[in-house]
Design a protein that fits this description.
The chain has about 110 residues and is mainly α. It contains two helices and no strands. The chain is rod-shaped and about 75 Å long.
Length: about 110
């Protein structure tokens, strides 16, 4: 039997997971935007050069390596938060299904 305390705990966890996801996603998008802005500024200033895309990408990796790594780490963090949020949503769906099943069985 599912208790009211269990239900409240899962809903509270989902609420925290939603908050964490939106915070992580916002941080990732902000840093990604800053990185793209810096790369575009470097192109405009002539700091990124190369005959082809491979050379330019190598130049970007050398110039912005730490920032690229940081943005990638934030992306992974946001994806983890998303999966955590989805897990709690699945748990709530499961609880709702069990409660509905119990109600149907009581009606019979």
């Amino acid at each position: 039997m599912i208790t009211e305390d269990e239900i409240n705990t899962v809903y509270a966890a989902l609420q925290l997971a939603n908050r964490d996801y939106y915070k992580a996603q916002e941080e990732y998008l902000k840093e990604k935007y800053n990185l793209e802005k810096n790369i575009n500024r470097a192109y405009a200033d002539g700091l990124i050069t190369g005959k082809n895309e491979i050379e330019r990408n190598g130049n970007i990796a050398q110039t912005f390596g730490n920032q690229l790594d940081h943005v990638q780490d934030l992306k992974v963090k946001a994806e983890d938060a998303k999966y955590n949020r989805e897990w709690y949503q699945i748990e709530i769906d499961r609880i709702q299904a069990v409660i509905r099943l119990m109600e149907v069985l009581e009606e019979k």
